[in-house]
Design brief:
- This protein is α/β, with parallel strands linked by helices.
- Helix content is 52%, strand content 16%.
- The chain is built from 15 helices and eleven strands.
- The strands form three sheets. The chain has a five-stranded parallel sheet, with helices on both faces. The chain has a three-stranded antiparallel sheet with strand order 1-2-5. A three-stranded antiparallel sheet has the order 4-3-6.
- Helix 2 packs parallel to helix 10, helix 4 packs across helix 5 and helix 6 runs antiparallel to helix 8.
- It is elongated and about 80 Å long.
- The two termini are 27 Å apart.
Length: 436
Protein backbone atom coordinates (compact mmCIF):
# COMPACT_ATOMS: atom_id res chain seq x y z
CA UNK A 1 0.00 0.00 0.00
CA UNK A 2 2.79 2.46 0.90
CA UNK A 3 4.57 1.74 -2.39
CA UNK A 4 1.33 2.36 -4.27
CA UNK A 5 0.89 5.66 -2.42
CA UNK A 6 4.45 6.72 -3.20
CA UNK A 7 4.02 5.82 -6.87
CA UNK A 8 0.74 7.73 -7.04
CA UNK A 9 2.30 10.78 -5.40
CA UNK A 10 5.21 10.63 -7.85
CA UNK A 11 2.77 10.51 -10.75
CA UNK A 12 0.99 13.55 -9.32
CA UNK A 13 4.22 15.55 -9.11
CA UNK A 14 5.25 14.35 -12.58
CA UNK A 15 1.93 15.65 -13.91
CA UNK A 16 2.65 19.04 -12.34
CA UNK A 17 6.09 19.09 -13.98
CA UNK A 18 4.72 18.20 -17.43
CA UNK A 19 1.98 20.83 -17.23
CA UNK A 20 4.55 23.45 -16.22
CA UNK A 21 6.67 22.54 -19.25
CA UNK A 22 3.62 23.06 -21.48
CA UNK A 23 2.99 26.39 -19.76
CA UNK A 24 6.56 27.52 -20.45
CA UNK A 25 6.27 26.37 -24.05
CA UNK A 26 3.10 28.39 -24.55
CA UNK A 27 4.64 31.43 -22.88
CA UNK A 28 7.73 31.21 -25.11
CA UNK A 29 5.59 30.95 -28.24
CA UNK A 30 3.64 34.06 -27.29
CA UNK A 31 6.23 36.23 -25.56
CA UNK A 32 9.70 35.36 -26.89
CA UNK A 33 9.56 38.26 -29.36
CA UNK A 34 9.30 40.74 -26.46
CA UNK A 35 12.76 39.89 -25.21
CA UNK A 36 14.38 42.05 -27.91
CA UNK A 37 12.41 45.31 -27.46
CA UNK A 38 12.72 48.07 -24.79
CA UNK A 39 10.92 47.07 -21.62
CA UNK A 40 9.94 43.84 -23.33
CA UNK A 41 11.85 41.57 -20.99
CA UNK A 42 9.94 42.89 -17.99
CA UNK A 43 6.62 42.53 -19.83
CA UNK A 44 7.54 38.98 -20.86
CA UNK A 45 8.41 38.13 -17.26
CA UNK A 46 5.16 39.75 -16.13
CA UNK A 47 3.23 37.52 -18.54
CA UNK A 48 5.09 34.46 -17.31
CA UNK A 49 4.25 35.21 -13.69
CA UNK A 50 0.65 35.88 -14.72
CA UNK A 51 0.47 32.39 -16.20
CA UNK A 52 2.11 30.94 -13.09
CA UNK A 53 -0.34 32.82 -10.87
CA UNK A 54 -3.32 31.36 -12.69
CA UNK A 55 -1.71 27.92 -12.77
CA UNK A 56 -1.10 27.89 -9.00
CA UNK A 57 -4.64 29.16 -8.37
CA UNK A 58 -6.09 26.36 -10.50
CA UNK A 59 -3.84 23.88 -8.73
CA UNK A 60 -5.18 25.15 -5.41
CA UNK A 61 -8.74 24.62 -6.65
CA UNK A 62 -7.78 21.08 -7.69
CA UNK A 63 -6.29 20.42 -4.23
CA UNK A 64 -9.59 21.36 -2.54
CA UNK A 65 -11.80 19.54 -5.04
CA UNK A 66 -12.06 16.35 -2.91
CA UNK A 67 -10.86 14.18 -5.80
CA UNK A 68 -10.47 10.62 -4.37
CA UNK A 69 -7.13 10.33 -6.19
CA UNK A 70 -5.74 12.95 -3.79
CA UNK A 71 -7.80 12.16 -0.71
CA UNK A 72 -6.68 8.54 -0.46
CA UNK A 73 -3.02 9.04 -1.38
CA UNK A 74 -2.04 12.07 0.69
CA UNK A 75 -2.31 12.35 4.46
CA UNK A 76 -4.21 15.31 5.85
CA UNK A 77 -1.03 17.06 6.98
CA UNK A 78 0.56 16.40 3.57
CA UNK A 79 -2.42 18.05 1.89
CA UNK A 80 -2.12 20.97 4.31
CA UNK A 81 1.56 21.37 3.39
CA UNK A 82 0.69 21.30 -0.33
CA UNK A 83 -1.94 24.01 0.22
CA UNK A 84 0.50 26.16 2.16
CA UNK A 85 3.42 25.99 -0.27
CA UNK A 86 1.18 26.41 -3.28
CA UNK A 87 -0.41 29.39 -1.53
CA UNK A 88 3.02 30.99 -1.21
CA UNK A 89 3.45 30.41 -4.96
CA UNK A 90 0.14 32.14 -5.68
CA UNK A 91 1.05 35.24 -3.69
CA UNK A 92 4.59 35.47 -5.10
CA UNK A 93 3.39 35.01 -8.70
CA UNK A 94 0.63 37.61 -8.42
CA UNK A 95 2.94 40.21 -6.89
CA UNK A 96 5.65 39.54 -9.50
CA UNK A 97 3.06 39.66 -12.32
CA UNK A 98 1.81 43.07 -11.18
CA UNK A 99 5.25 44.58 -10.53
CA UNK A 100 6.94 43.41 -13.76
CA UNK A 101 4.04 44.42 -16.02
CA UNK A 102 3.70 47.83 -14.38
CA UNK A 103 7.40 48.60 -14.67
CA UNK A 104 7.66 47.07 -18.14
CA UNK A 105 4.83 49.19 -19.56
CA UNK A 106 5.87 52.33 -17.68
CA UNK A 107 9.54 52.39 -18.76
CA UNK A 108 9.19 52.95 -22.56
CA UNK A 109 6.66 55.75 -22.13
CA UNK A 110 8.49 57.32 -19.19
CA UNK A 111 5.35 57.02 -17.08
CA UNK A 112 5.46 56.73 -13.31
CA UNK A 113 4.72 53.33 -11.84
CA UNK A 114 1.62 54.54 -10.00
CA UNK A 115 0.27 56.30 -13.09
CA UNK A 116 0.81 53.16 -15.14
CA UNK A 117 -0.92 51.04 -12.51
CA UNK A 118 -3.84 53.51 -12.53
CA UNK A 119 -4.06 53.30 -16.32
CA UNK A 120 -4.21 49.50 -16.14
CA UNK A 121 -7.20 49.68 -13.80
CA UNK A 122 -9.09 52.39 -15.66
CA UNK A 123 -8.29 51.82 -19.33
CA UNK A 124 -7.76 48.06 -19.73
CA UNK A 125 -10.59 45.57 -19.90
CA UNK A 126 -11.25 43.57 -16.70
CA UNK A 127 -7.99 44.68 -15.01
CA UNK A 128 -9.90 46.40 -12.18
CA UNK A 129 -11.75 43.15 -11.50
CA UNK A 130 -8.42 41.35 -11.37
CA UNK A 131 -7.08 43.91 -8.88
CA UNK A 132 -10.12 43.50 -6.63
CA UNK A 133 -9.79 39.73 -6.84
CA UNK A 134 -6.10 39.97 -5.96
CA UNK A 135 -6.84 42.10 -2.88
CA UNK A 136 -9.46 39.58 -1.69
CA UNK A 137 -7.10 36.67 -2.35
CA UNK A 138 -4.20 38.30 -0.49
CA UNK A 139 -6.48 39.11 2.46
CA UNK A 140 -7.74 35.50 2.63
CA UNK A 141 -4.15 34.25 2.38
CA UNK A 142 -3.07 36.52 5.25
CA UNK A 143 -5.87 35.12 7.42
CA UNK A 144 -4.65 31.61 6.63
CA UNK A 145 -1.22 32.23 8.13
CA UNK A 146 -0.97 30.06 11.26
CA UNK A 147 -0.60 32.92 13.75
CA UNK A 148 -3.74 34.63 12.37
CA UNK A 149 -5.69 31.42 11.73
CA UNK A 150 -5.43 30.34 15.36
CA UNK A 151 -7.11 33.58 16.46
CA UNK A 152 -10.17 33.04 14.29
CA UNK A 153 -13.18 30.85 14.99
CA UNK A 154 -13.31 27.96 12.52
CA UNK A 155 -16.59 29.27 11.08
CA UNK A 156 -15.11 32.70 10.27
CA UNK A 157 -11.97 31.18 8.78
CA UNK A 158 -14.10 28.82 6.66
CA UNK A 159 -16.20 31.77 5.41
CA UNK A 160 -13.07 33.65 4.31
CA UNK A 161 -11.99 30.62 2.30
CA UNK A 162 -15.29 30.67 0.41
CA UNK A 163 -14.52 34.21 -0.79
CA UNK A 164 -11.56 32.76 -2.69
CA UNK A 165 -13.87 31.37 -5.36
CA UNK A 166 -15.10 34.87 -6.15
CA UNK A 167 -11.55 36.19 -6.08
CA UNK A 168 -10.46 33.53 -8.57
CA UNK A 169 -13.24 34.44 -10.99
CA UNK A 170 -12.48 38.15 -10.71
CA UNK A 171 -8.74 37.58 -11.05
CA UNK A 172 -8.89 35.43 -14.18
CA UNK A 173 -11.65 37.08 -16.23
CA UNK A 174 -9.14 39.24 -18.08
CA UNK A 175 -6.63 36.54 -18.92
CA UNK A 176 -8.15 34.90 -21.97
CA UNK A 177 -9.48 38.24 -23.26
CA UNK A 178 -6.32 40.31 -23.03
CA UNK A 179 -3.50 37.82 -22.45
CA UNK A 180 -0.92 38.24 -25.18
CA UNK A 181 0.21 34.64 -24.88
CA UNK A 182 -3.19 33.43 -26.11
CA UNK A 183 -3.63 35.68 -29.14
CA UNK A 184 -3.08 33.59 -32.25
CA UNK A 185 -2.23 30.44 -30.26
CA UNK A 186 -5.24 28.19 -30.50
CA UNK A 187 -3.56 25.17 -28.91
CA UNK A 188 -2.47 27.14 -25.84
CA UNK A 189 -5.88 28.75 -25.45
CA UNK A 190 -7.49 25.29 -25.72
CA UNK A 191 -5.04 23.92 -23.17
CA UNK A 192 -5.95 26.68 -20.73
CA UNK A 193 -9.69 26.19 -21.26
CA UNK A 194 -9.15 22.49 -20.58
CA UNK A 195 -7.59 23.39 -17.24
CA UNK A 196 -10.49 25.66 -16.30
CA UNK A 197 -13.19 23.20 -17.33
CA UNK A 198 -11.44 20.18 -15.81
CA UNK A 199 -10.56 21.74 -12.47
CA UNK A 200 -13.84 23.53 -11.87
CA UNK A 201 -15.76 20.51 -13.16
CA UNK A 202 -14.10 18.28 -10.56
CA UNK A 203 -14.71 20.88 -7.86
CA UNK A 204 -18.39 21.17 -8.77
CA UNK A 205 -18.89 17.39 -8.89
CA UNK A 206 -17.11 16.30 -5.73
CA UNK A 207 -17.82 19.28 -3.47
CA UNK A 208 -21.35 20.22 -4.50
CA UNK A 209 -23.18 17.91 -6.92
CA UNK A 210 -22.21 14.53 -5.42
CA UNK A 211 -22.98 15.50 -1.78
CA UNK A 212 -26.37 16.85 -2.86
CA UNK A 213 -27.11 13.73 -4.92
CA UNK A 214 -26.20 11.53 -1.94
CA UNK A 215 -28.35 13.64 0.37
CA UNK A 216 -31.26 13.20 -2.03
CA UNK A 217 -30.64 9.48 -2.57
CA UNK A 218 -30.09 8.46 1.06
CA UNK A 219 -32.27 11.15 2.71
CA UNK A 220 -29.78 11.65 5.54
CA UNK A 221 -31.43 12.86 8.76
CA UNK A 222 -30.42 13.18 12.39
CA UNK A 223 -31.81 10.14 14.21
CA UNK A 224 -30.59 11.10 17.67
CA UNK A 225 -27.71 12.28 19.85
CA UNK A 226 -26.04 10.07 22.46
CA UNK A 227 -23.68 11.29 25.16
CA UNK A 228 -20.45 9.26 25.10
CA UNK A 229 -18.58 10.98 27.95
CA UNK A 230 -18.74 14.15 30.01
CA UNK A 231 -17.92 16.29 26.96
CA UNK A 232 -18.38 14.10 23.88
CA UNK A 233 -21.54 13.38 21.92
CA UNK A 234 -22.31 11.08 19.02
CA UNK A 235 -24.77 12.09 16.33
CA UNK A 236 -26.59 9.16 14.72
CA UNK A 237 -27.67 9.70 11.12
CA UNK A 238 -30.37 7.55 9.52
CA UNK A 239 -31.35 7.28 5.89
CA UNK A 240 -32.86 5.27 3.07
CA UNK A 241 -30.55 2.33 2.27
CA UNK A 242 -27.83 4.02 4.29
CA UNK A 243 -25.96 0.73 4.75
CA UNK A 244 -24.95 1.06 1.08
CA UNK A 245 -23.21 4.41 1.63
CA UNK A 246 -19.54 3.55 1.15
CA UNK A 247 -16.58 4.78 3.16
CA UNK A 248 -13.37 3.18 4.36
CA UNK A 249 -12.87 2.58 8.09
CA UNK A 250 -10.94 5.52 9.51
CA UNK A 251 -12.14 8.12 7.01
CA UNK A 252 -13.89 11.37 7.81
CA UNK A 253 -16.34 13.72 6.11
CA UNK A 254 -17.41 17.33 6.29
CA UNK A 255 -20.90 17.36 7.80
CA UNK A 256 -23.61 19.96 7.18
CA UNK A 257 -26.46 19.67 9.68
CA UNK A 258 -29.38 21.74 8.37
CA UNK A 259 -30.71 22.69 11.79
CA UNK A 260 -31.65 26.21 12.99
CA UNK A 261 -28.62 28.26 13.98
CA UNK A 262 -26.00 25.94 12.47
CA UNK A 263 -27.34 25.12 8.99
CA UNK A 264 -24.75 27.34 7.33
CA UNK A 265 -21.76 25.71 9.05
CA UNK A 266 -19.75 22.68 7.90
CA UNK A 267 -17.21 20.83 10.02
CA UNK A 268 -14.96 17.78 9.51
CA UNK A 269 -15.57 14.78 11.77
CA UNK A 270 -14.54 11.15 11.48
CA UNK A 271 -17.02 8.35 10.93
CA UNK A 272 -17.17 6.67 14.35
CA UNK A 273 -18.89 3.46 13.31
CA UNK A 274 -17.91 0.73 10.82
CA UNK A 275 -19.32 0.87 7.28
CA UNK A 276 -22.33 -1.25 6.35
CA UNK A 277 -24.44 -0.53 9.44
CA UNK A 278 -27.99 0.85 9.38
CA UNK A 279 -26.82 4.26 10.55
CA UNK A 280 -23.88 6.65 10.18
CA UNK A 281 -22.32 8.26 13.19
CA UNK A 282 -19.94 11.08 13.92
CA UNK A 283 -18.68 12.10 17.34
CA UNK A 284 -17.80 15.58 18.58
CA UNK A 285 -16.31 17.14 21.67
CA UNK A 286 -18.32 20.08 23.01
CA UNK A 287 -15.71 22.83 22.83
CA UNK A 288 -17.30 25.67 20.84
CA UNK A 289 -20.58 27.18 19.69
CA UNK A 290 -21.12 24.62 16.93
CA UNK A 291 -20.16 21.52 18.90
CA UNK A 292 -22.16 22.71 21.91
CA UNK A 293 -25.18 23.15 19.65
CA UNK A 294 -24.75 19.63 18.29
CA UNK A 295 -25.67 18.01 21.59
CA UNK A 296 -29.08 19.71 21.53
CA UNK A 297 -30.02 18.54 18.03
CA UNK A 298 -33.51 17.20 17.59
CA UNK A 299 -34.26 14.18 15.37
CA UNK A 300 -35.32 14.96 11.82
CA UNK A 301 -32.80 17.61 10.75
CA UNK A 302 -31.44 16.95 7.27
CA UNK A 303 -27.73 16.25 6.84
CA UNK A 304 -25.43 16.76 3.86
CA UNK A 305 -22.22 14.72 3.87
CA UNK A 306 -19.21 16.02 1.94
CA UNK A 307 -17.09 12.88 1.77
CA UNK A 308 -15.84 10.35 2.59
CA UNK A 309 -12.35 11.77 2.74
CA UNK A 310 -8.91 10.99 4.05
CA UNK A 311 -6.19 8.35 3.93
CA UNK A 312 -6.32 7.34 7.61
CA UNK A 313 -7.55 3.93 6.50
CA UNK A 314 -6.99 0.31 7.46
CA UNK A 315 -5.39 -0.48 4.08
CA UNK A 316 -2.27 1.34 5.29
CA UNK A 317 -1.57 -1.67 7.54
CA UNK A 318 -1.91 -4.24 4.73
CA UNK A 319 1.65 -5.52 5.25
CA UNK A 320 1.82 -5.04 9.01
CA UNK A 321 2.65 -7.74 11.53
CA UNK A 322 0.83 -5.84 14.28
CA UNK A 323 -0.97 -2.52 14.70
CA UNK A 324 -0.58 0.12 17.38
CA UNK A 325 -3.31 2.75 17.67
CA UNK A 326 -2.66 5.94 19.66
CA UNK A 327 -5.61 8.21 20.46
CA UNK A 328 -5.76 11.54 22.22
CA UNK A 329 -9.18 12.73 23.39
CA UNK A 330 -11.69 12.80 20.54
CA UNK A 331 -9.01 11.14 18.39
CA UNK A 332 -10.52 7.84 19.52
CA UNK A 333 -13.45 8.32 17.07
CA UNK A 334 -11.92 6.98 13.80
CA UNK A 335 -10.56 3.91 15.59
CA UNK A 336 -14.04 2.75 16.58
CA UNK A 337 -14.77 2.34 12.87
CA UNK A 338 -11.52 0.53 12.07
CA UNK A 339 -10.51 -1.73 14.98
CA UNK A 340 -12.90 -4.49 13.97
CA UNK A 341 -11.37 -4.57 10.47
CA UNK A 342 -7.89 -5.08 11.95
CA UNK A 343 -9.15 -7.84 14.24
CA UNK A 344 -10.96 -9.56 11.38
CA UNK A 345 -7.60 -9.63 9.55
CA UNK A 346 -6.15 -11.50 12.57
CA UNK A 347 -3.71 -8.70 13.37
CA UNK A 348 -2.61 -8.10 16.97
CA UNK A 349 -4.01 -4.67 17.85
CA UNK A 350 -3.13 -2.45 20.83
CA UNK A 351 -4.85 0.85 21.65
CA UNK A 352 -3.16 3.53 23.76
CA UNK A 353 -5.88 5.98 24.75
CA UNK A 354 -5.00 9.30 26.43
CA UNK A 355 -7.75 11.25 28.20
CA UNK A 356 -7.91 13.93 30.87
CA UNK A 357 -9.93 11.88 33.33
CA UNK A 358 -12.14 8.81 33.65
CA UNK A 359 -15.24 10.83 32.83
CA UNK A 360 -13.65 11.84 29.50
CA UNK A 361 -13.37 8.25 28.24
CA UNK A 362 -15.69 7.67 25.27
CA UNK A 363 -17.13 4.49 23.74
CA UNK A 364 -16.74 2.43 26.93
CA UNK A 365 -19.25 -0.24 25.87
CA UNK A 366 -17.81 -0.63 22.38
CA UNK A 367 -14.23 -0.75 23.61
CA UNK A 368 -15.17 -3.41 26.16
CA UNK A 369 -16.72 -5.53 23.40
CA UNK A 370 -13.63 -5.09 21.20
CA UNK A 371 -11.44 -6.14 24.13
CA UNK A 372 -13.39 -9.39 24.31
CA UNK A 373 -12.55 -9.87 20.63
CA UNK A 374 -8.83 -9.44 21.25
CA UNK A 375 -8.10 -5.70 21.41
CA UNK A 376 -5.46 -4.71 23.98
CA UNK A 377 -6.34 -1.37 25.63
CA UNK A 378 -4.05 0.79 27.79
CA UNK A 379 -5.62 4.00 29.09
CA UNK A 380 -3.46 6.98 30.08
CA UNK A 381 -5.28 9.45 32.35
CA UNK A 382 -3.85 12.91 32.91
CA UNK A 383 -5.48 13.06 36.36
CA UNK A 384 -3.36 10.04 37.34
CA UNK A 385 -0.17 11.55 35.95
CA UNK A 386 0.14 9.02 33.12
CA UNK A 387 1.12 10.17 29.68
CA UNK A 388 2.13 8.46 26.46
CA UNK A 389 5.87 8.95 26.05
CA UNK A 390 8.90 7.16 24.66
CA UNK A 391 9.15 4.81 27.65
CA UNK A 392 5.52 3.74 27.46
CA UNK A 393 5.76 3.21 23.70
CA UNK A 394 8.79 0.90 23.80
CA UNK A 395 6.92 -2.21 24.89
CA UNK A 396 4.51 -1.91 21.96
CA UNK A 397 7.07 -1.39 19.19
CA UNK A 398 8.41 -4.45 17.40
CA UNK A 399 9.60 -4.92 13.79
CA UNK A 400 6.66 -4.78 11.42
CA UNK A 401 4.48 -2.56 13.62
CA UNK A 402 2.34 0.03 11.84
CA UNK A 403 1.40 2.91 14.14
CA UNK A 404 -1.68 5.12 13.76
CA UNK A 405 -1.73 8.44 15.67
CA UNK A 406 -4.84 10.60 15.99
CA UNK A 407 -5.14 13.46 18.44
CA UNK A 408 -4.36 17.14 19.00
CA UNK A 409 -1.78 18.56 16.61
CA UNK A 410 0.94 19.01 19.24
CA UNK A 411 0.46 15.48 20.56
CA UNK A 412 0.60 13.97 17.06
CA UNK A 413 3.80 15.81 16.20
CA UNK A 414 5.46 14.89 19.48
CA UNK A 415 4.56 11.21 19.27
CA UNK A 416 5.65 11.01 15.63
CA UNK A 417 9.08 12.29 16.67
CA UNK A 418 9.21 9.83 19.56
CA UNK A 419 8.32 6.94 17.25
CA UNK A 420 11.09 7.97 14.84
CA UNK A 421 13.58 7.85 17.72
CA UNK A 422 12.38 4.34 18.51
CA UNK A 423 13.22 3.26 14.98
CA UNK A 424 9.73 3.23 13.47
CA UNK A 425 10.12 4.20 9.79
CA UNK A 426 8.15 7.16 8.51
CA UNK A 427 6.21 4.90 6.14
CA UNK A 428 4.91 2.95 9.16
CA UNK A 429 3.49 6.01 10.96
CA UNK A 430 0.00 7.07 9.86
CA UNK A 431 -1.26 10.35 11.31
CA UNK A 432 -4.50 12.29 11.23
CA UNK A 433 -4.30 15.88 12.46
CA UNK A 434 -7.44 18.02 12.30
CA UNK A 435 -5.64 21.35 12.59
CA UNK A 436 -7.12 23.97 10.24
Amino acid sequence: MDQTRRTTQQLFYAGIAVSLVLLLWGWWAGSAHLLTIPGGRLVALGRLFGLLATYTILLEVFLVSRVPFLEKNFDLHEMTDLHRWNGYGIVASIVAHTVFLTIGYAAPGHVGWWNQFWQFNTQYEDILYATIGTIVLLAATALSVRIMRKRLPYELWFATQLTLYGAIVLGTLHQLKTGGDFIGHFWFTSYWYMWYIGVFGLLAWYRFILPLLNAYRYEFRVAGVVQESATTYSVYVSGNGIEHFRFSPGQYATWWVLAPGIWWQAHPFSFSNPPGEEFLRFTVKASGDFTNAIRHLQPGSRVIIDGPRGSFITDRAANAKQVLLIAGGIGIAPYVSSIETFLDAHLPVALLYAASSKKEISFRRELAELQRQGLLVDIFLKEQGRRIDTDSLKQYITPGTVVYVCGPDGMSRGLSNALHKLGVPKSAIVTERFAY
